[in-house]
Amino acid sequence: MQAVSFSVSRASIAGRTVLPVVFLAFLTGCHTYGSSEAIKSLPSDLKSASISDIEIKSLPPGVSPEFSQKLNTALLAETKKCATGSHPLKLSVSIGRLTTENAAMTLLVGDSEDIKGSAQLIEPANGTVVGDYDINKSIGGGGVFAAIGMAGGEAKLANAFAVELCQQAFGH
After folding, report:
1. What CA–CA distance (Å, rounded) separates 128 from 28?
2. Helix (H, G, I), strand (E, B) or coil at 145
3. Per-position DSSP letters for 20-60, written without gaps between them
């Protein structure tokens, strides 16, 4: 019986270890995070409200002409799920910042897109603000999967804003 000898150099181990790690890092994904807060929480007796009207008061410069409609659509869809009561409230939204990803940056070093704004729930009968929320959501990541996952940024950010509003105001 002959003995078989294997020779393993540090360079070959490093090459076998580094290449898969670099490849996996290139494929990584994205994650969401935020720091939203209630400035004035909706009173408990109005937690069973519905949204009767949506007003988009302001948008930052540089957003696409379609963004207002994307935001309105997302707010309508989400509030129909979370604000299912019978007491109608007006929703007034102002967006102060909207940044979308740079695909090349996302692939190379990672990037993020974010939306920051405010949402006020208003009693239509007298104009009283009954709920006031600062909404701040970000989606960030790096690699191929993140670049794919972050595509369609304005629509995804509009949806993230609407979902976060429902969470903050109505608890779902």
Report:
1. 46
2. helix
3. HHHHHHHH--EEEEE--EEEEPPPGGGTTEEEEEEEEEE--
